[in-house]
Amino acid sequence: MPGNRTGVIMTVWDRPEPPNRLVPLDRERIVAAAIALADEDGLDAVSVRKVAARLGAGPMRLYGYIATKDELFDLMVDEIYSEILPAEQPGDWREALRVLAHRTRQTALRHNWLADLLGGRPALGPNALAVTEATLAALDGLADIDTVMRAVETVSAYFTGAIRREVANLRAERATGLSKQDWQRASGPHVTRMLATGRFPALARAVYDGTDVDAETSFATGLEWVLDAIAAKLTPPRA
């Protein structure tokens, strides 16, 4: 992310685009091509050279629009945030956080590479900022700003971890050719032998007595528990 002599960071959104040449090119086309590559083969498939080839342009031309690969990722993430932003403001804080979590999960399932870029430093693009604004606005006035920020961070930490786990499982299925059920059947004899030793009684109860649920149910249940905990923090104590 280039800076200037004052030390102020100039983001990719602050820099103007260069004029067009023979092959039409702009950041919108570059980002669309990069997202298509990532959707097909993951982030490792995204490079300036491959994006340029997909657009029929020379790689050096792209550097007039993006300075680094990280900037390209920033633009890709912000474009995807447009899919997370709800069309209408949810009715209350709980629904707003629920919608944020579910829409982020649904978007990551369409674009698995997003799971690799969730978390870390806040996204600064206009779509990401709009998502953050809508989320904070839903909690405005319910508590002091520090409590509100911790609430949003807690939900974000939950769905980021849950999404990464789910995407990791999907990638394992594609890499091995084994579904969750196939993998359980294949590893069943080993697990049965280990549990028969009596060394893992709590795990044995979970395996034999626990209810196996799908990823969506697991995600929704865990999210509601997190929201219940946040509700307790947002509820003022009785006088």
Describe the 3D structure:
The chain folds into two domains: 1-67, Arc Repressor Mutant, subunit A, CATH 1.10.10.60; 79-177 and 218-234, Tetracycline Repressor, domain 2 (Orthogonal Bundle), CATH 1.10.357. Helices cover 66% and strands 0% of the residues. It has 239 residues and is mainly alpha-helical. The relative contact order is 0.09. It has helices at 27-41, 48-55, 59-62, 69-84, 93-110, 114-117, 126-139, 145-176, 180-196, 201-209, 215-234. It comes from Micromonospora taraxaci. Residues 47-66 bind DNA.
Give me some keywords for this one.
2 domains; Arc Repressor Mutant, subunit A; HTH-type_TetR-like_transc_reg; Tetracycline Repressor, domain 2; single chain; 11 helices; 66% helix; mainly alpha; Homeodomain-like_sf; Tet_transcr_reg_TetR-rel_C_sf; 239 residues; transcription regulation
The CATH class of the largest domain is Mainly Alpha
Major sheet size, sense and barrel closure: none
CATH topology of the largest domain: Tetracycline Repressor, domain 2
Count of alpha/pi helices: 11
CATH superfamily of the largest domain: Tetracycline Repressor, domain 2
So, CATH architecture of the largest domain? Answer: Orthogonal Bundle
SSE topology string? HHHHHHHHHHH
Number of strands: 0
How many domains, in number, for the residues?
A: 2
Name the poorly predicted regions: none
- What is the 3D shape? flat
Q: Estimate the helix proportion, in percent.
A: 55-70%
Q: What's the rounded overall pLDDT mean?
A: 91
Structural class by SSE content: mainly alpha
Q: Over all CA atoms, what is the radius of gyration?
A: 22 Å
Distance between the termini: 51 Å
Q: How much β-strand is present in the residues?
A: under 5%
